[in-house]
Structures are given as structure tokens and as C-alpha cells.
Design a protein that fits this description.
The structure is a single chain. With 93 residues, this protein is α+β, with helices and mostly antiparallel strands. It is 29% helix and 19% strand. A two-stranded antiparallel ribbon has the order 1-2. It is elongated, with a radius of gyration of 38 Å. The relative contact order is 0.08.
Amino acid sequence: MPAAAVVWRIVSSDMHPIEGTFAFTAGPGATAGPGTPSPAPEPAGSTGFSWPVAVIVAGVLVAGLVAGGLYVRRRLSGNDTGNEPADEPGDHG
């Protein structure tokens, strides 16, 4: 492989130009031996944990618990307007 050089120039933070050069030679690449491990492929059906889905499910559960708690609280306090007796027909106060 042929030799090559990198020539660079940059302006520093105090506005002074800095430049330089370095040379290198690339040789032939090494071949991988039979003992080189390769990364194991992930199973096709395996998926990771999905945070967005977990957050949505948790939000729905919390909203349901809050709504249920408010419903029970309202029923136990007796302030439900649907529990008041209806006026008698002819009773005009």
C-alpha cells in the first residue's frame, strides 16, 4: 500500500491558525482467524421492553384508580344529587 499524508489546518479559540502534517502507511489487512467470535443474532420473535407502552398503560391505570376513588368517595359522602327523593306530584311547596 502507498504512503499517505494528512495535512491539517485549524483556527484556535484565540484566533491563531494552527497547522500540521503527519504521514502514514497502510499495510495489508489481517484476516480473521477461525477463533474470532461473532456477535450472536437476536431471536426474531424477541422484542425489548417498550417504555412508551408501559407509560400509557400506567397512565390509564392511574386515571382509572382516581376516577374509581372519586366515585366511591362521592357515594359514601351522600352528596350525590341522584339520591335525593323526588317531589310528590301536587306538592308545590
